[in-house]
């Protein structure tokens, strides 16, 4: 352990009285006396009594120094550096998902720019996939691009925190409502657990399940079975793709860890890091592709331009649309078979360069994206000159 002492008064003063109180209570300190400007906390450690005086008003002129006194006391009691404890006080009411990557071609703590950007985006997609599986009535192997409002609101509250020592580390911090009661039931995940905590645990459980499925697939005749059996635990094509993205273009190993908010303890759970090797990532990528090929993304809306038409004589025919799927920004080319009436509309749209919209079930067939059961095919209002 590097014994780092904190001297930055601004960093000390940034810790609120509520954060200090939650940290002390979560670590076994009890209140002995409450005054107008401070609260006296005590804790017995191996027969010795320690005291911490917590200020209740951050506007006090010497507030930062008072926080420093608490920090130095905690460093002695816990045998940890002041910097580590200050970081934990900052996240006392947050679940923290840490992803530690191990790029073999970089100096410790460094990562390529493109891989770093991809890692941040993949961490977002990982949490998004878990949040959707918690909110959905029925978990899906292929999640829709358009996510419920509840999931998007939750995602806006998740924060990216500072990195830590070691290899390149990124961390997502999720604010968690504190537990206001105590008792023997804190080891169980009660139905009343907040959405935020359920998402945190779903991320971890789904990652564990994907890790186990990847191990099983390396030795199984039908490796996909292990992934489809884990859909109820949050495994999906979306989650597998997010895990692959964390490894970057080179597919370097990484591990994911979860630290639960001390303000809302959950006893009886072992949450060790889940580490993915280089050989796990091609398996996860293959699983994601096969899930998308076998299981359609249902009721997808597509909007774009008709770029290809093909049919033999009159009647139904095949078209392709270059456009976007509802909920996504990237352009994709999507193929579909249309009946004679809709094919006629597609022909007109192609000739007059008009946008069209259509809804159906999206599935991958080799290198193609195919829209099955297309319905509601129409020319987009406003894309034509009336």
Number of helical regions: 11
Radius of gyration: 26 Å
Taking the sheet with the most strands, its summary is: 5 strands, antiparallel
- Estimate what percentage of residues fall within beta strands: 25-35%
What number of structural domains do the residues give? 3
The residue fraction in helices comes out at 25-40%
Coarse morphology: elongated
How are strands sequenced across the largest beta sheet?
5-6-4-7-8
Class derived from helix and strand content: alpha+beta
Terminal CA distance reads 73 Å
Order of helices and strands: HHEEEHHEHHEEHHHEEHEEEHEE
Spans with pLDDT under 50 lasting ≥5 residues? 183-188
Mean pLDDT, to the nearest integer, reads: 89
DSSP strand count: 13
What key phrases describe this protein's structure?
386 residues; alpha+beta; OB fold (Dihydrolipoamide Acetyltransferase, E2P); 3 domains; five-stranded antiparallel beta sheet; five-stranded mixed β-barrel; 11 helices; 26% strand; elongated
Summarize the structure.
The chain is α+β, with helices and mostly antiparallel strands. It has helices spanning 9-13, 17-26, 63-78, 82-90, 113-135, 149-157, 195-217, 224-228, 237-246, 280-294, 340-352; strands spanning 30-34, 38-45, 48-55, 94-101, 159-161, 169-175, 254-259, 274-276, 297-310, 317-325, 332-338, 355-365, 368-379. The model is unreliable at 183-188 (pLDDT under 50).
């Amino acid at each position: 352990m590097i014994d780092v002492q904190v001297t930055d008064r601004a960093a000390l003063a940034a810790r609120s009285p509520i954060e200090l109180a939650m940290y002390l209570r979560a670590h076994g300190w009890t209140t002995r006396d409450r005054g107008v400007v401070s609260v006296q906390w005590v804790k017995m450690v191996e027969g010795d009594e320690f005291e911490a005086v917590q200020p209740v008003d951050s506007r006090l002129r010497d507030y930062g120094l008072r926080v420093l006194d608490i920090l130095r006391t905690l460093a002695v009691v816990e045998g940890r550096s002041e910097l580590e404890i200050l970081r934990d006080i900052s996240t006392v009411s947050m679940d923290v998902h840490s992803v530690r990557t191990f790029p073999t071609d970089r100096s410790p703590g460094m990562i390529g720019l493109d891989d770093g950007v991809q890692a941040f985006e993949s961490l977002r997609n990982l949490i998004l996939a878990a949040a959707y599986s918690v909110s959905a009535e029925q978990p899906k192997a292929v999640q829709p691009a358009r996510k419920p409002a509840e999931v998007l609101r939750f995602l806006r509250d998740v924060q990216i925190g500072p990195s830590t020592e070691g290899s390149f580390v990124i961390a997502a911090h999720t604010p968690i409502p504190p537990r206001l009661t105590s008792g023997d039931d804190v080891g169980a995940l009660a139905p009343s657990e907040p959405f935020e905590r359920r998402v945190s645990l779903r991320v971890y459980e789904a990652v564990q399940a994907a890790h186990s499925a990847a191990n099983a697939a390396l030795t199984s005749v039908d490796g996909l079975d292990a992934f489809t059996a884990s859909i109820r635990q949050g495994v999906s094509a979306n989650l597998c793709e997010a895990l692959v993205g964390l490894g970057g273009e080179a597919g370097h190993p990484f591990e994911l860890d979860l630290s639960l908010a001390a303000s809302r303890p959950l006893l009886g759970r072992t949450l060790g890091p889940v580490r993915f090797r280089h050989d796990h990532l091609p398996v996860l990528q293959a699983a994601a592709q096969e899930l998308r090929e076998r299981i359609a993304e249902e009721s997808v809306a597509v909007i774009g331009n008709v770029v290809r038409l093909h049919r033999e004589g009159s009647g139904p025919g095949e078209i392709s649309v270059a456009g976007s799927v509802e909920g996504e920004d990237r352009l994709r080319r999507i193929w579909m078979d249309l009946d004679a009436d809709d094919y006629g509309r597609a022909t007109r749209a192609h000739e007059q360069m008009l946008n069209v919209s259509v809804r159906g079930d999206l599935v991958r067939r080799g290198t193609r994206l195919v829209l099955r059961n297309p319905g509601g095919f129409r020319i987009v209002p406003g894309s034509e000159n009336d």
